[in-house]
Amino acid sequence: MLLTLVSEAHDPNGGSFANRGGHYAPRPFSFFKYAIADWQKRGHDVLILSRDKDLTLKLLDEAGLTHHCLTKVRKGMLGLGIELVQHSTAVWRALGKHRSQVVAAIGGTFIVHPARLRGIPSLVFYDTENATLSNRITYPAATRIFTPRAYRDDLGEKHERYNGYQELAYLHPHRFTPDPSKLAIEGLNPGDPFTFVRLVAWGSHHDVHDFGVKNIHEVVRRLERYGRVLISSESSLPDDLKQYERKGRSSDVHHIMAYARLLFGESATMASESAQLGVPAIFLSTSSRGYTDEEERCYQMVFNFNGERAIEGQALDCAESILSDPAYETTFRERHQRMMDEQIDVSAFIVDQVERYAVTQGK
């Protein structure tokens, strides 16, 4: 199989950007890393096309993965438009040289049009309904669009849903085991109570007029009653809160999150990641996501405060109720187990779907 993976332009979920206090791994890298390992074990030729944004190149290099960087991130809508043309052109050339049988990406904006011109199937994996601009560019030209079952929109005949969440591609129990030794750099031991707070920069095109936490000092004050507070922030924190910034490596963030008692923040992705790890999450944002809504409705592992419910005080009341619950351990262990029982190994799903299209193309 000749497969091309493209590291996409953006992740609008507020969970994949490098940041001063966050040190968070880009989502496309995490999403495909286990699938890449499986394909390589099976002897497939995998071409990885990357983009110089945040920590993507560093993490690819650290993982020992050969990749080809096509463009560097540009700022603003005009810059993104110029880069879209440049990157798509570079993808078109790379596909011709590699003779790819199938291409795949999260989001897919950079791959679908050059793949279509080359007559190559393009497989898009995505979960964010409110990334309306990029979705309008991408979806009409995609061969197949794979989303979690919770995706709100019906994308027609090319749309396929699966029982899972994108975060399970790298956090499914078959793929990920948290390492308690990673807590040491944060001055924590296994069993120490702490809350993980995630703040985003609100820089994506669809983030205009959105907001989440308004008073981070009040958030810290109230959550600190129940243990340590670690903050992962895409923007610089006030000087008096810098002591709360987490210190660990980008690649270790999920090991830290797995030992928290609660995630409180503005990132839908990290709220969902927290749920997959068995840790309850508060998602505070004026925007919402189908998958976090389902994680609350079906499993009560995420608690959404979105739209008119995006009230910080109510979110903190909910957080305190969770943290003070004497039945916390039993309650969330049972909810998490039920959720895992109903979800698939998403990396295995990715591997099978991409191989299926490659075989079809090779006939």
Q: What does it look like?
A:
The termini are close together. The chain has helices at 27-41, 56-62, 76-98, 112-118, 132-138, 168-171, 216-223, 253-257, 268-276, 290-297, 312-323, 328-341, 346-362; strands spanning 2-6, 45-52, 68-72, 102-106, 122-125, 144-148, 159-162, 194-199, 228-233, 262-265, 281-284, 302-305. The protein folds into 2 domains: 2-172 and 345-362, 3-Layer(aba) Sandwich (Rossmann fold), CATH 3.40.50.2000; 180-341, Rossmann fold, CATH 3.40.50. The protein contains 13 helices and 12 strands. It has 363 residues and is an alpha/beta fold. The relative contact order is 0.15.
Concise description?
This protein is α/β, with parallel strands linked by helices. Helix content is 37%, strand content 17%.
